[in-house]
Amino acid sequence: MSRRTRVLAAALVLCLAAGMAPLFGQSKPVEITWWNYPNFTTLDGELGKYEKELVAAFNKKYPNIKVNVEMISFNGGPEKVTVALTSNSGPDLIFDYPGRITEYARQGYMAKLDDMFKPADLKDLNPTILEACKLDGKIVQYPFNVANFMMAVNKTMFEEAGLANLLPLNKPDRLWTTDEFTKALKAIQAKRPDAVPVIVYAKSNQGDQGTRIMAINLFGGEYMNADMSSYMQNKGGTVEFMKWLQNGVKEGWIAKGGEAMTSGDAIDSFLQGKAAFTIIYSNVLRNTNKDKKTVKFEEAFLPWPTPAGQKPRLDSFIGTIGVFDNGNKDKIAASKLLVDFIVNDPVWGTKNLASTGGFSARLSAKSPYADPEATFASTMVKYTGRYYNTVKGFVKMRTLWFPELQRVMLGMATGQEAMDSFVTKANATLKE
Amino acid sequence: MSDALARPARASRPRGVSHAKESFAAYVFLLPALCFFSVFVVYPMLRGMYLSFFKLAGRRMTFVGLKNYVDLANDPVFWRSLGNTLLLVVGNVPIVIVFSLFVAATIFRKRPFTRSLLRGVFYLPAVSSVVSITVVWSWIYHPRYGVLNYLISRAGAEPVAWLGDPRFALAAVLVVMTTLSVGQPIILYVASLGNSPESYVEAAEIDGASPWQRFRHIVWPLLMPTTLYIVIITTINSFQVFAIIQLLTSGGPAYATTTLMYQIYERAFQIGDFGQSSALGVILAVIIVAISVVQYRYFKSDVEY
Asked: Are residues B74 and B34 in the same domain?
């Protein structure tokens, strides 16, 4: 080897080492900030304790990366992130969902993560989930956990009322029709006047995906047209649903006062044994809300009822981790290492997944749960509907939905009037 | 009166110290407060006005001229929030004045211990967390498990969705606002009544004035500076009501309780439209300044310091 070749080879090795240093050595100390919603189960009732243990394990592998964990709540957290990003004081990474992270990416705040995926990784991801993580063909968030939103029933309440035969628990995939659901609501209303059959909530945009998915399933409606250029709630099934809703509130087999309740109120009522059904539940919600269950009862997941002969379409919860582009390459590289550790570490990856209550976004992964309800929930992924949370103006659309639902529930507008008004305003958000 | 105040100041100036030097020293003393005021009040205010002419999308800013204001003028939710805000102001201010004056006049005559105790009781909401109090109220108003519905059901009435029914929601918010607003005015009125010369009232009593005449022609004019302060502060606070709305109703049902302040929050922090939110902020500031000026002029004629 000539001297010239040796020099060239040494230079090449140095360049490679310099380029890969952020990914392997991390010789230079880096400090990053991770804002996290309460996605993991709290340890010993202390918020953030699990995250501290996770970071301690990460630091054994990468001692030069200091991670500051800051817990934020789902109530008010998104606003805090918006303010921080606008004032250039945002975090370096966040564990959230595509509805928000894609919006941050659209505004130029997110780093691209394509370099974190090998071709085999991409093949191992559910195509719907992978698509939800992209913006303009680039991956802007790392998919971690998934869980379909479904309904749940207080099985014990129905059994004690002698009405268990009205539930579809022995049917294949527990599929059932809207008529059967309505019959169950009316029957439990008659037998248990001290409880409410179901709460359709509309106080704010909290948990609003539950009411939107319910609205399209029960009478065969649609969210959007095929190319997602227009909302469709003012046609067919959704308008039918609004009539059903108004009637239910009037007759009391849907709780009165839902227009002043949030999804949190509805889940609390269900877990306190005061409501027979909850219209929003998932294995993740079951896991994160388990401390709120104050009464012992057996609960069971249920898919959305549909008109006879139709298949339910479930709304998917996708948990993703995004890295912010704060203009510092070292911080971005360090954040990517933390993302990789959270999702793919042989020990902590599985532990983290189980702590969220979700299932892996990878097709090859097995469910980390043994209990029958979680197993049932994992089999329902096949009914996942279209993921529309990443359309332009999604965040603004959410502020338009619940006021129209309130108008319907209060009898201030017909279903058609309310949905016409919603679609007109929501379509405008797609063009802004 | 201003001459009388100015003369001793001139007389007390040490010989050889010029007026300019004295002014300079005064400005130096004012500088720290001025710096804080400039950084935390003046700059954000000017920045807000500037932003109101832009469309913001993340790090991108596009100049749109008066578009944000035009869009607001064509937005029914803006007009609804303006109407609700004015209703809350018009409802809250007179209730606070009448209620706090009534309470102050009642407890003023009590023994010192009782007076202090009652002052503490009424002031408690002012020093407590608004969030905690509002959460308690949300349970009082709860349609199914609330104390209020329990009480009216004992009287044979049907339960009411206090926060879910557009006919009651704004009134329910007004009640909470009032309970949170009366603490400070009661303390101020009690203090003001204590500072009013007793001899005027006693003289009128000897002259045969009725209790109403004594209140109308002697006590009320003496309380006017305090009333002016309370009216202006309560008006401003009522215009800026936010936490109660956010926690109790989120502006609903169907925009029945949305206010300008809530819309500023929703558009900035939920939707991320900081430009339109800033335009709303400018409009709110202009309204508050205009009303405060009118109030000051109206009440000022009766104020004698």
From this structure: no
Q: What are phi and psi of B237, to 5 degrees?
A: -65, -35
Residues 132-151 of B with CB under 8 A from A: 143-144
For residues A46-75, average pLDDT: 91
Query: In this structure, are B127 and B220 located in the same domain?
Result: yes
- Do residues B162 and B103 both lie within one domain? yes
Token pair for B242: 């936010």
Looking at the structure, do residues B43 and B93 belong to the same domain, yes or no?
no
Asked if B209 and B108 sit in the same domain, the reply is: yes
Q: Is the predicted pLDDT of residue A9 greater than 60, yes or no?
A: no
In the predicted model, what is the mean pLDDT of residues B202-228?
A: 88
The domains located in chain A, with CATH, are 24-147+317-383 (3.40.190.10), 149-315+388-431 (3.40.190.10)
DSSP string of B92-111, one letter each residue: HHHHHHHHHHHHHHHHHTS-
Distance, CA of B103 to chain centre? 19
Structural domain of B163 = 70-300
State the CB neighbour count (10 A cutoff) for residue A344. 16
First to last CA, chain A: 62
How many CB atoms lie under 10 A from the CB of residue A66? Answer: 14
The answer to whether A386 and A423 are in contact (CB under 8 A) is no
- CA dist A368 and B280 (Å) reads 50
Instruction: Say how many domains are in chain B.
Output: 2
**A256 → closest Cβ in B161, B249, B271:** B161
Residue closest to B142 by CA, chosen among A2, A199, A421? A199
Q: What is the pTM of this model?
A: 0.77
Residue B90 lies in a domain: yes
Residue B30 in domain? yes
Report the pLDDT value the prediction gives residue A249, as an integer from 0 to 100: 93
- Distance, in Å, from the CA atom of B153 to the CA atom of A416, rounded to the nearest integer, reads 35
Nearest to B59 among A82, A103, A107 (CB): A107
Percent of chain A with pLDDT over 90: 57
Q: Give DSSP secondary structure letters for B14-68.
A: PTT--HHHHHHHHHHHHHHHHHHHIIIIIHHHHHHHHHTTEEEETTEEEE-TTHH
Q: Which among B252, B266, B274 has the least Cβ separation from residue A203? A: B252
Do B39 and B91 lie in one domain? The reply is no
Question: Residue B220: which CATH number?
Answer: 1.10.3720.10
Q: Does B179 touch chain A (CB under 8 A)?
A: no
Domain identity same for B36 and B90 = no
Q: Which among B160, B270, B277, B278 is the top mutation candidate for probing chain A, defined by the most A β-carbons within 10 Å of its own β-carbon?
A: B270
- The pLDDT tens digits for B245-294 are 999 998 988 899 999 999 999 998 888 889 999 999 999 999 999 988 88
Is residue B286 located within the same domain as residue B158? yes
- Span B134-162, pLDDT tens digits: 999 999 998 878 899 899 988 888 888 88
Q: How many contacts, defined by CB atoms under 8 Å, are there between A and B? A: 87
pLDDT band at A19 (very low <50, low <70, confident <90, very high): very low
Give the per-residue pLDDT at A5: 53
Q: Which residues are within 8 A (CB) of A26 and not within 5 positions of it... i.e. 6 or more apart?
A: A62, A64, A65, A333, A334, A337
Residue B61 pLDDT > 90, yes or no? no
Q: Complex ipTM, two decimals? A: 0.70
Asked if A410 and B270 come within 8 Å (Cβ–Cβ), the reply is no
